[in-house]
Amino acid sequence: MAEKDVKKSTDFLNVDETETSSEWAKKVVDGAVGEKPSSAKSAAAPQTPESSQDNITIDVDPGASSPADKKVSEEVAAETEVEEVQESIEQSAEAEESLDIAMLQTLEAEKNQYLETSRRVQAEFENYRKQVAKREVESRERANEKLVTEILPVIDACDGAITNGSADVAPVRSALVDTLVKQGLETVESAGGPFDPELHEAVMHEEAKDSDGSVVTEVLRVGYKWKGRLIRPAMVKVRG
Known about the structure:
By secondary structure, the protein is an alpha+beta fold.
């Protein structure tokens, strides 16, 4: 009985020396074999059943790694590489976003500058247009004023003819004056009013018995305004 147990024990420990330490360690972990003998001599040595159960040791190479460990290492390396790629993508996205924001800010500043320039140019053009329109109106007014000034002697001739008894001239004078009045001709009020050097031209004077000031006593030639502007002062006789 004892010899059978010893033979069984030696068969359990009889391991091919050509096996690598890692292969043998894997078999030990899986429970396939027992302790790896250090030599063929140790495998052939007789042992008792007690010694085969109590003195079995496992000699595992510390530098050896199992396929499972390699797989775990590869998975960790793959995860690390994925994380690095994701981090690189995120950094690239942040850089592109920063660049887009900077570009938008630049475009916004250029837009505001162009808008301000456009508004300024538009305002300047509007002022220029108003000035041109105003000068055109003033030019037309001066031309009309010059024309009216040249017509005034005709009106004076009509007044003289009427004073001398030529009543036939009155309708012509009335029609001419009415037309000019509609366009802006005004008569300077003189007779009986105070003398105003800005509106009257005094050509005759007479002494006054009181000191109430200078008064227009007679109009020798009618004065006129064109659209509120004096174009010819009234020629008058003044008392005082």
